[in-house]
Write a structure and sequence with these properties.
This protein is an alpha/beta fold and 497 residues long. It has 13 helices and 17 strands. Its EC number is 3.2.1.39.
Amino acid sequence: MGGGRRRVLLLFLLLWAAWGGIFAAEALGVNWGTRASHPLPADIVVRLLKDNGIKKVKLFEADPMALSALGDSGIEVMVGIPNDLLAPLAGGVRAAEDWVQQNVSAYVSKYGTDIRYVAVGNEPFLTTYNGMFTQTTFPALQNIQAALIKAGLGKQVKATVPLNADVYETATGLPSGGDFRPEIRTLMVSIIKFLINNGAPLTINIYPFLSLYADPNFPLDYAFFAGAANPIVDGSITYTNVFDANYDTLVSALEKNGFPNAEVIIGEVGWPTDGDKNANLQYARRFNQGLLDKLSRGQGSPKRSRPPETYLFGLIDEDAKSVAPGNFERHWGIFNYDGTIKYPLNLGSGRSLVAGKGVRYLDRQWCVLSPDASDADSNLAQNVGEACTYADCTSLGLGSSCGGLDARGNVSYAFNMYYQTANQQKGACQFSNLSVITRTDPSRDGCRFEIMIDTGRHEKVRSPASSSGAATVRDSRIGIIFLVVLLGLGILRGMRI
């Protein structure tokens, strides 16, 4: 090959690599959830996004701090509407106009926030909702889009509905058999027609982790992008991972109902790092790196060669989320609650994750079980249950990061989580005189004993031994569940209740 041709080929390869990196950056977004007892300040989160080259973010609600901090940031925003607002928004255009004025127009005009989408509801057609939102979602979507148009934002901002992948299914078990669930097929067709007519995308959430979580016989390698041991053959197409198979099941459903070219956004996809035996750092890194590599290559699915715009779930852990789906719900972040890096990721173009900057912490001290405390103390079990009612103990479950602690370590972890959640306030480490404060970090064997962010909010708290069960809106069942689990595992063996 002559020198001229080699230079042309080299230039082409460089341009191709650069294009891949640019495409990955344009295609990748993240979900920023704010259900945390000590949320990372919004300005630090925005800087975290920018430092990592993330140019798209999805919010689950119109959080004022987040929306204002995102102003003039160069980051595109999808702002969400919770399901409990669907009914009033469906009731009339005026309610939708008020919502758009307060949560879209105000931030666009005052802060320069680059809002591109409004997510109307969040997975409203889940089968577990038993049709609760089927009558209100589409009218709410229509009213929000009408309100955006009236506000002069119809071309800039589009309304969509983030849907769970359970809105479609396949009777054959193959992607080619994809179709929408019979009871919502007519509604789905109406919604998709409306989205297309308004230049808006269909938004779908896909979770390979949940396939593994729901079925103990699900082939592990098929949940990841490099899995080839358990392929599925669908005619001339071979699927080596469940993400592509799931996505193409949707594509088949769209084609079957007359929408072969409908634009699709992946609203949520990711892998948790704790709260289940398959939720760990190694698997999360394997899955998310495979996803990022796929985006960097500009690689789509067998039925759609171009990858969709994709929002990774999620950015930061949320210790106040509901654990109804599972204990893993609080551990989806690629960053810990404080913006520190959980595991390395190659973001493409030679970029690695960058941690959050400017985070302020509470004092380096922990609340642990006193060395002098007896394992047989009759108050111990009650105090552990109370601590886990008011703080996050999901890392103590079987197969979780702190699941290997001994009995005393479990008690110390529960005490410390309460103490930190209560901002290390005086009286928060009493626990019937069974605990002490230490300045020696008790973290060990991959189990992290937290120190919370100093948010500047130091509410007065009561000792858990005297707290009322009605004093918190957090799920009081958590403490009971963990108390039962700890007893069942023998972690509180020998302790009288």
